[in-house]
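Annex B. Sample input.
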Amino acid sequence: MELLKDMSLFVEVCKVMSFRKAAENLEMPSSTLSRRISHLEEEIGLRLLHRTTRKVELTEAGSIYFERCKRIVSEAKLAHEQLGEMLSKPSGILRISLPVDFGTIFLTPLLVEFAEHYPGINFEIDLTPRLVDLVAQNIDVVIRMGNLPDSHLIAHKLMQFQGQLFASPEYLEQHGIPQHPNALVNHECLSFPNNMHWKLSNKGEVVDVTIGSRFVLNNVGMTKQLAILGKGVIFTPYDVVRDDVNNTRLVPILPEWFGDALPVYALTETRLLPAKVRVFLEFLKTRLVSNSGITSEI
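Annex B, continued. Sample output.
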């Protein structure tokens, strides 16, 4: 504990490169601060700072130690924050990166609700499917769907989807209702690029069918609208089309057949999270499941 405290004092000195200013910021005598840093240097066995009457400079060893200490001290402060009052009243800017469709369909109403619960938090939101650099772009949370590539990031599973088949009553009246997934080869199917094989399963039977489509696009909202307008069969999670099914704009096809589970993850740089991020993830895990009934983390 004493070592961590001395490291914290060392970081404060390095931030301003002045014992006097650091002592004022810390509200402690300069002599005490200088003595604690000297003790730290003795413990390490290396000179960390060059002191003159005019200025303070880092040694080569001091520069290396400062970079390590900054992270350690920062994480220690975050740990205290999690246990303190700030956890109940988190504040600051929450920077989130997420796919456009997930953001517009699922997250927008939840953000409104979350913002009402935590008025001290402001938001910066980046809508993109690409995996951003959390550190370089100063992002707190990245939300992504599907299997994740290997990385150093920490994955927090929020929920998972399973695709189902839907079409408009007009389309089915004109083209007929498929009685088995293999019959989809004779139907217009609305698909994403690089997804011309639909895999469906039912009680152990698995079918991988190659589909054809006049419309291939990468936006869920437009795909759904084309399905409503009678342009084909859509393969999507029920919660994407819940309102359309309730209003009979779309109807389920082969309701006993499901696609593979599609997990949704929140990615963070570390497991030691600031309060604003921690409460956001806890909120999402609770609300996404309660709103949809979709399976959450197991």
